[in-house]
Amino acid sequence: MIQLKAFQIFSTFNKDEFTSFGKFIISPYFNNSKELIKLYKLIKPYHPEFNDAKLAFEKIYKKLYPDKKFNEGTVRNLFSGLGSMAEKFLAYINYENSFDYGYNIIAESSARYLDKEFQKNYKKYFEINKEQADPFLVKNLNQYFLESVMCNYTQNRNGNFNRDARNSIYDALFAFFLTQFLSEQSCQLNVTDWYESKESYNIVGSFFKFTDVKALIEIMEKNNSPYYEDVKLFYYISVTAQNKSGSFNENFEKAYELFKVKVGKMTKNAQLRMYVLMINIINMNIKAGDINLSKIKFTLGKEMIDKGIVLDDQGKMAAEMFSSIIHNAIVAGEINWAKEFLENKIDFLDDETAAKANMGNYYKAKLLSCDKKYLESNEVLLNISKDHNTFKADSKILRLINYYELGYIEAGFSHAEAFKQLLIRNDEANIGRKELSSNFLKFYLSLLRMKAGADSDISFVKKELEECKFVKSKTWLIEKFAEWTNLRN
Amino acid sequence: MNKIKAFQILSTLTKDEFAAFGKFIISPYFNSSKELSKFFSVVKKYHPLFDNPNLDYQKIYKKLYPGKKFSEGTIRNLFSGLTALAEKYLGYVIYEDSSSFNYNVLLEMNHRDLRKPFLKHYVKSKNYENSIPDDIGLKSLYSHLLDSELSDFNVRRSNVNEPEMKSAESLLIYLLKFFFLEKSNFKCGKDNFNESLEYNIVGEFFERTDVEGLINIIQENNLNVGIKLRLEYFMDLAHENKNNNFLEHLHKALEIFRSGEFEMCDREKFMVYASIHNILNSNVKSSDMELKRFLFEFKKEMIEKGITSEMFGKMTAIDFITAIDAALNVREIEWARNFIESKKDSVEDEMKSDLYNFNMARVLFLEKKYEASNECLAKVRQESIFFKMDIKVHRMKNFYELNYLEAAFAQTDAFKQFLLRSDIVSEKRHKSYSNFLKFYLLLLKKKSGMEIDYPAIKKEIIECVSIRQKGWLASKADELK
């Protein structure tokens, strides 16, 4: 496709949208340029690919100005104008189905003293917003706008300064604010804890430090605030994510129960964010070998697949999402489901994603390793591009595991040494990620030495491994140490 | 005006908006009916009144379909189509100039995975938000929404929920600004109308939040916004009269406001002036002439600088009345008269005449032109909630000054009946009018020759907390002595 903004945007339009753009560009309300209309008509047959030779600038110019000498600037200007129109159209494409549209009608009706229109539309959009039932996104913010406009309307018409009505405006705004901050706090903990990084400026943390949020939520409950139920879910998720009391399982159970009740009523986008949030919270607190949480993580991933929420508007799945879901299935021991997933869903990855082939090969190798087909697994690993950073470390670790299982001690040592050098040299990798791999290497080498005949006391290393928070393939390492302990006993 | 709904909507459009609607209706994106376009071209010349006899159904039909037999149904259908389009247009009239327009472009770009255009448009939208005046903090809210979208864009690509401090900060600023504003409004309601709330989320929030601590953190990172929030904070302390340090906190707020250390758009300036005015009003005592003078000078400064609600269209009734109140409290009668004359056309047409006559009556009263004052009061519409009670009070004062005792007694009785029947006023307001009535009646009785216990009444008036026209009643009591 020719790299022009207009084509980039047009190529995302489906047939109906592109037809609608045709009406848009010939509408005097939006466009007065006849030349733009002509240009649009010329390129129209080439939607959505726009890769025909007839789209060369010279050819287009000739069609537009048959008798004139070619001027590239003119064509570029026209395409720039068409790009701007395409961009503008994006704001209109779903506008009439949006809350903004309804709200603008309501606000304008109120400002123009069109009372009947105001009443009718207020009722209509109030119900639509209520039905939307999506507290994660903007439901409560929309509610806040609606309550505000109604309050202004009432005040302007009869001077009625109803405090309860005003309070419900701020109740809605506060609910929106709190859900945003609580979820932000939950996400933040994931990142900062995982990588042990420090936030220099953390306004979310400061807010929770300076505000007794628990008391405020209790007050909302006591006063039957209509927003309490929305806030409650995010509050328990946040409490679980913070895990300050140490009762993670208990809090998680509460949060998970609320999540199961609420998630079905959310929009696709909100559901996706909620599922990712729940999975991340488990990731932060799961201990190696915790089958119960591993199963929940797998269930969450499976539900996302079954509901189709992992697919974006273009029907594609993010590479990281794919990786996370299949990884969680393997950890939960759902090998057959993982195999099926790999076979059937790999095509949902973007073809242009460099990760697609590498990911396919890595998980194929991983599943072969799970089936104890270590040699085949190593062969598949050879197909992974060495330039691909995402699987660089993971494929090396899998290879090391395969060597260990195969009893290839020499190969195991030499690969471990090469991996060590890579980790020392590589300064691009995030410190947290680097630590995961170097810790793996440390424990792996202990195992390998034992396999090579060293007779050292493993109880100390085993304890260290159990306490280590950041280590790759921890479950496998624990399993192997347990095997050695059993052997020695 | 014409009762047809389409005309009702179209008559609210300005000339420019109506011209844009002309393009709207012939745009295939919105309308594919050529008949409707034709119909519009017939009726458009009668904008904005649409009261021409040519707008008769039969005449319109004849213009549209010459030679055809009249069908009322056809015309009704055309009017119905025009109404639907006019209503739809209300959703479009300001859309392209709004923050939500840019935000919706960004949303679509994100959903469509248009990576480069998304990032470019994000920068463009943020610049736009920075360039427009702040509409009471809405800028912060849209900044938050834009940053959230960027966060979502990142999450969808990396599966890492990166902390977005900018987005969170914008949202917190928005919340704080609005909560400060509401807290101040609530205080005014509480002071003036004895309003209370069983559940007050704003009050609860301030009760359970170390706001100063939060502002310190914000100011360390974002000086301009931090100073503005600090200004709000001191205004709040002054309004609450925290630790009886009203003046100290007010001066701290004024110091920040006048320091010029930060940029403020007109609306923000107006909000600060209005808030400080409310704070002064809440704390001024009827005997404190110094503070009353300060209040007037402050209001005068606001008006001379053009910082009034007039900047955003029409001046509000409250803005108009409070300026006159401030002037009359310090006997700046001439200033008040000039203000009424010069600003009478700045208020909503609906209230223009009432506001003019009511306030002119007050000026005339102070000029001792009681007959003229009553004449002005007679022109104010009685149904207006803003004036209903005060018209009666001022008329009674005029009767008293004119020595029209019979008329005064009759008016008193009528007002008493009105208060007994009325359930539209708050308890506190009701009490203040009842108290006025009680003392007015006593003074009237004395004036008509009856004996009253003067020292006890004077003492009661002075000590009464909730009472209308306290100063006037006290001065009349002194006269009768």
Would you list the SSEs of chain A in sequence order as H and E?
HHHHHHHHHHHHHHHHHHHHHHHH
Largest inter-chain interface?
A-B, 86 and 86 residues
Beta percentage of chain A is: under 5%
Q: Specify the structural class of chain B.
A: mainly alpha
Sheet-strand content of chain B, in percent, reads under 5%
Radius of gyration of chain A: 29 Å
Ranges of chain A with pLDDT <50 over ≥5 residues? 191-198
**How many angstroms does the end-to-end distance of chain A come to?**
67 Å
Major pleated sheet of chain B: none
> What's the SSE pattern of chain B?
HHHHHHHHHHHHHHHHHHHHHHHH
Description:
The complex is a heterodimer of chains A (489) and B (481). Chain A is mainly α and 489 residues long. In chain A, 72% of the residues lie in helices and 0% in strands. In chain A, helix 3 packs across helix 5 and helix 21 packs antiparallel against helix 22. Mean pLDDT of chain A is 86; it is low at 191-198. Chain B has helices at 5-10, 15-25, 34-43, 57-64, 72-92, 99-111, 115-131, 138-158, 165-193, 201-207, 211-221, 223-240, 246-259, 266-283, 289-304, 317-329, 333-343, 349-366, 370-378, 388-402, 405-421, 427-447, 454-463, 470-480. The relative contact order of chain B is 0.04. The longest helix of chain B is centred in the middle third of the chain and has 29 residues, at 165-193. The two termini of chain B are 58 Å apart. Residues 159-163 of chain B have low confidence and may be disordered. Classes of the chains: A mainly alpha (489), B mainly alpha (481). At the A-B interface, helix 1, helix 2, helix 5, helix 6 and helix 9 of A face helix 1, helix 2, helix 5, helix 6 and helix 7 of B.
